[in-house]
Amino acid sequence: MPRLFVPSAVISGDRLTLPAGEAHHATRVLRLREGDEVRVFDGGGREWSGALSMTPPPAVVALREVDAIAEPSVRVTLALALVKGDQMDTAVRDATMLGVAALQPIVTDHVTVPPRAWQSGAALERWRRVAIASAKQCGRAVVPEIAPVRAFADVISASTDTSSAPFMCVEPAAGAALLAMGSAAANRPAAAIIYVGPEGGWSPAEIARARDTGATLISLGPRTLRAESVPAVALTAIWTAWGW
Amino acid sequence: MPRLFVPSAVISGDRLTLPAGEAHHATRVLRLREGDEVRVFDGGGREWSGALSMTPPPAVVALREVDAIAEPSVRVTLALALVKGDQMDTAVRDATMLGVAALQPIVTDHVTVPPRAWQSGAALERWRRVAIASAKQCGRAVVPEIAPVRAFADVISASTDTSSAPFMCVEPAAGAALLAMGSAAANRPAAAIIYVGPEGGWSPAEIARARDTGATLISLGPRTLRAESVPAVALTAIWTAWGW
């Protein structure tokens, strides 16, 4: 079933007005026609079904609210070190598909992406589009919030003020225990922040800083994972342990 | 540490002769020089360290065998439905990095990749190269065996004769229980075969066939995953449950 994204839905009776951009997407990209059944979601967790009406103004008619796919039991923020353009797209797409509530891109000691690649804000807009496209495809009614890029040190400082349990994914060489499934499942937090490093890994100072903050260091198996795969692997390990 | 792949190592004393292709790879692609430290692995689980010697014939000298990264506790075969070219590359790369012992590409009812794309054998050669490259990168000393493409029906018939426990990854809509972590961990088999379908999912007949064969149906969360991501997600869920 094709899914449209309307973040600020204007609903009048059983009719939801489509913004011009999404009406264009429906007819030109998805090649839908008058009367076709569609779903609409608002990115905040609400979803509707109805029929496409292209009589101006374009709308979804015979609207009824439907149950959205349940969100995960733990509110997870992914604090993700910047990686190269298309690797970042993969990471954002996977993180959305695997249920993160929010995404915080971070600059760490070993990030090699130059500031000009993200300082203009165009990159942030791009990641938000990738997250929306991924939410459409995976059936999710929530689009994770993507925050502007910040320094790792600032994010980890701020996270001590929140109730999110911190976890840091480290390279096998860092010698951390594997995510202990049993103990992790027993200690399921209400919210968590997962730090994922760049291709070059974390600096010793960053790992020390995370330890000081009370972060649980987790290693995702003995092999070195490609940076862009780490979000999918880390999130899957966590949902398997905590329940999807 | 750069890693070279020499499947049939010729060792004389503390000297391992490098095949021409791998010597070329070392100097031209990796830009290594005389005396640089390297690792060599044979794809079957053995690994050595030594120094590069480019005096003809090229070799690794001062050779000593080192401990390879441990292989997973369960011998997993991934029976993977064909997906489009670069998605297949991603799946092979992830499966190698996430420890599968063997990979069996399969044709299923909803596979849309045309036979000409894989019948010549060039695709198989390509997947084998992707698996070798992934093993080099992830630090694994084993290169999973990739079998020639077969029909799903033939593979599942043959699998009843083996001691591999069958698992089939199904779409959320198929209504299977999620992989129950506790029970899966309690029932860790010595070997398993994991069936992963194509973008269009499994046909009802295929799911019925898998059930008849005693396969455990597993669903990887409520959201629809991209086909190329399913191997990474399925394998991570399994290792989290069974131990990496």
Account of the 3D structure:
- The structure is a homodimer of 244-residue chains.
- Chain A is α/β, with parallel strands linked by helices and 244 residues long.
- Chain A has 2 domains: 64 residues, Hypothetical PUA domain-like, domain 1 (Ribosomal Protein L25, Chain P); 168 residues, Alpha/beta knot (3-Layer(aba) Sandwich), CATH 3.40.1280.
- In chain A, 31% of the residues lie in helices and 25% in strands.
- In chain A, the strands form 2 sheets. In chain A, strands 7, 8, 9, 10, 11, 12 and 13 form a 7-stranded parallel beta sheet that branches. In chain A, strands 1-4-5-6-3-2 form a 6-stranded mixed beta sheet.
- In chain A, helix 2 runs parallel beside helix 7.
- The longest helix of chain A is centred in the middle third of the chain and has 17 residues.
- Chain A is elongated.
Short description:
The first copy, chain A, has 244 residues and is of the alpha/beta class.
Question: Keywords for this structure?
Answer:
homodimer, 244 residues, alpha/beta, seven-stranded parallel β-sheet
